[in-house]
C-alpha cells in the first residue's frame, strides 16, 4: 500500500514539476516606452498657476 502511494506521489510531483518548467518564461518583459511630459501637461500647469494667482488677488481685494 505504501509503495503505491509513494510511486503515485513521486509521479505526480515530477509531472507537476516539469509542467511548471515548461510554462516558465525566460527573462523580464521589456520596459514600457518613455512618456514625454510636454504639451498638454505644460498647459495645465500654466492654467493652474494662473488660476492660483487670480484666486490670491481676489482674496487680497476682499
Notes on the protein architecture:
By secondary structure, the chain is an all-alpha fold. Helix content is 69%, strand content 0%. The protein contains 2 helices and no strands. The chain has helices at 2-22, 40-61. The longest helix is centred in the last third of the chain and has 22 residues, at 40-61. It is rod-shaped, with a radius of gyration of 32 Å. The relative contact order is 0.06.
What is the C-alpha radius of gyration, as a whole number of Å?
Answer: 32 Å
Roughly what is the average pLDDT, rounded to an integer? 82
Cα distance spanning the termini: 92 Å
What's the number of helices? 2
Please write the string of helix (H) and strand (E) elements: HH
Percent of residues in beta strands: under 5%
The coarse silhouette is rod-shaped
Please estimate the helix content: 55-70%
How many strands, which pairing sense, and closed or not: the largest β-sheet?
Answer: none
Structural class: mainly alpha
Outline the low-pLDDT stretches.
none
Amino acid at each position: 500500500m505504501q509503495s503505491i502511494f509513494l510511486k503515485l506521489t513521486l509521479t505526480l510531483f515530477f509531472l507537476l514539476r516539469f509542467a511548471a518548467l515548461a510554462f516558465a518564461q525566460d527573462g523580464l518583459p521589456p520596459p514600457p516606452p518613455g512618456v514625454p511630459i510636454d504639451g498638454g501637461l505644460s498647459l495645465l500647469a500654466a492654467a493652474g498657476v494662473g488660476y492660483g494667482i487670480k484666486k490670491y488677488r481676489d482674496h487680497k481685494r476682499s
